[in-house]
Amino acid sequence: MHPFAYVAPSTVAEAVAELNKHGDRARPLAGGTDLLVKARANVWELDAVVDIKNIPELMTLTVNGSGLSIGAGVPCYQVYDNSEVAAQYPGIVDGASIIGGIQVQSRAGLGGNLCNAAPSGDGIPSLIAHSAVAVIANASGTREVAVEDFCTGPSRTVLESGDLLVSIEVPKPAANTGAAYTRFIPRNEMDIAVAGVAAFVQLDASGKNFESARIALASVGPTPILASAAGDSLAGKPVNDETIAAAAALAKDAATPITDMRGTVEQRKQLVEVLTGRMINKAVERARG
Amino acid sequence: MTTNSPSKVHVTTTINGQQHELLVPGYMSLLDTLRELIGLTGTKEGCLDGNCGACTVNIDGRIVDSCLVLGAEVNGKEVNTVEGMATPEGLHPLQQAFLEEAALQCGICTPGFLVAAKGLLDNEPSPTEGRIRHWLAGNLCRCTGYDKIVRAVQKVSD
Questions:
Q1: Beta carbons of A39 and B27 less than 8 Å apart
Q2: Which superfamily does CATH assign the domain made up of B93-156 to?
Q3: pLDDT tens-digit profile of A247-264?
Q4: Is B79 helix (H, G, I), strand (E, B) or coil?
Q5: Residues B140, B109 contacting (CB under 8 angstroms)
Q6: Which of A151, A179, B60, B142 has a beta carbon 3.0–4.6 Å from A200's, enabling a disulfide?
Q7: Which pTM value belongs to this model?
Q8: Cα atoms found within 13 Å of the Cα of residue A266, Cβ hemisphere only
Q9: Are residues A87 and A149 part of one domain?
């Protein structure tokens, strides 16, 4: 591992200045569960790591009337241990509670999961399904990027040199909404998704019809994918096996997986179809309370 | 590229109840800090990438993989390792139960399992078997299988 300096600024401005000083040879450190593995494997040769955990706004989790704000350094356990988050954002909790084991969840967070940009990032599909937005700071100010546009390829994001993810903002779900995420893995725990699916649905007041839906996929393309056609197909349709099966088939069409050690193209596409049906049903169940 | 070695970080931390002042290279893991700077070699190196849990320690009440923490990050924090479990009066009940249930063979994974299991029982004294297995999913044992380890933890549960 290339020897690097450790700095722990207490403001966003100081952190951005440190990142700018070193360009691509510095990285923000949140949980370190990806960063230190990559540094050790010499994927990244770093001169400095910028620990963001002394910056208050990056460590704050807020749930209020406008939505959920997840600071970029907030670890997974704080997300799933929060009873308000669990009640209002169960799909996000589904993802946060299966990233690594307990030790990893003590450190790793959804911000790091997003910045790591693994196609299999279990934290990302529910953020996409919830229409979450990433807030990014740099020397000239802040900007917002929809989470579905954040990852641009495996381990690649819209972040440029000197950019720092500050928070992930999730709009407050309307009444009669529900969400869910699951993945398929051959083990019970501690594995990388062969395929993953998140669903977010909004029902009408009767609970019998979809008003809108968003479906997002993991591990079946170079980035997590918003399967727009699948979600859009449900708008205005009754909740029944036929409409859900049609959406699941469209999600399957949106998957562009590869064959690798974890699964084949055919298996992954099949998994997307099956898991999409299950997650829509689970989201509907949650929406109906 | 030639660079001067980056400067060391001044760290004040409490380890197993004892305060330590250290100068830690910025890139040094907490695992190496414990083993090489302080001489606490109970914490073991396994996979070095967060899969095996052999290096599990407790920081401020949460279990973590110490290979994925920098020594510099524990400034102002309380770290507890396997060395902090036994007292002069005897072994920690979990350590005693691991012996009685033969929950170890080679012993490399054992400190990590002990610290992880203590992290569970400190907060949840009566976990179900399923909860124990879920909690310990981040710890790998390649000798015993897991039944004896789970039985040992159950023995100490209320």
A1: yes
A2: [2Fe-2S]-binding domain (1.10.150.120)
A3: 999 999 999 999 999 999
A4: strand
A5: yes
A6: A179
A7: 0.96
A8: 0
A9: yes
Q: Report d(CA A148, CA A224) in Å as an integer.
A: 7
Residues of chain A with pLDDT under 70: none
What average pLDDT does chain B have? 95
On whether any CB of chain A is under 8 Å from the CB of B152, the answer is no
Sheet strands side by side (includes A26-29): A5-7, A48-51, A26-29
Chain A residues within 8 A of B70 when measuring between CB atoms: 6, 29, 32, 36, 49, 51
How many helices (H) and strands (E) would you count in chain A? 11, 14
Q: What is the CA radius of gyration of chain A?
A: 19
Measured between alpha carbons, how far is A227 from A197 in angstroms, rounded to an integer?
Answer: 10
User: What pLDDT sits at residue A188?
Assistant: 84
Q: How far is A104 from chain B (nearest CA, A)?
A: 6
Domain ranges of chain B: 8-84, 93-156
- Which residue in A53, A55, A44 sits closest to A22, CA to CA? A44
Instruction: List all residues 6 or more positions away from A20 whose beta carbon is below 8 Å from its beta carbon.
Output: A139, A161, A162
- Mean pLDDT value of segment B55-68: 98
Q: What amino acid is encoded at B91 in this protein?
A: L
